[in-house]
Amino acid sequence: MAGGAAVVFTGVVAVPAGAAEGGVSFTRVQVNGGKPIVIGVSNEVAVPTSFRMATTHEWKYPAVFLYRGNADPTGDRLWHAIETSDCIKVSTGVCDFNETMYFDPSVWDMHNSEAGAWKVAAEVSFQGGGGDTDDEGLTVYVKRNSRLTVNASPEPVAKGRTITVTGKVTRANWETRKYASYGGRLVSLQFKPTGATSYTTLKKVYANGSGDLRTTVKASQTGTWRWAYYGNTTTGPSTSAGDNVVVK
After folding, report:
1. Would you indicate the residue range of the signal peptide (predicted)?
2. pTM
3. CATH for 145-245?
């Protein structure tokens, strides 16, 4: 298990090392609806997963999991707990399953190096010994949550004068369980006029090395300012709250 974290299974066990493979087909595997798994520093994240299993073997403990390296027990695996439903029978020897994969950084140790791409595999144990572990040819990104703040001033402001918009980008540090500055990010400054239903990006600004954002715009109409960061392969996207400025 990645990072050496202790693991709690709920109704699921890992296939023993050296278990015989074959005799099982896993299909229709979905993890989190194909979306990245974004994890902060304090809240448990429950990831919905589903799959179909077909086999003529007597089986127990089917599960889908994330791994790096090898899908067998010699590789790294990432989850803190897994719950798998009973068989939802499709036909003889064919079952659908609903699964929830849990991640809780407030309880279990996580390493920042665990952010990024993980492969998906499925496995099952057979009654009497042995089992099957299959790579599913899917990739899931596990990402560190990010946060943004915003402040637009002065409030109110005379039309044509300068508004200064500041903010800060931070992201989850799983090892310290705190949010830390995330410098050098390209962040979009967005504006929504009063009465409008959506924001428009007006410019893009790089955060400095400490994650601080600062730019100026001309006051033209009353509305709300915010920052939006679109994330990357290791970090989730985020949007700040809005700061309304009245233009007189």
Report:
1. 1-19
2. 0.87
3. 2.60.40.730
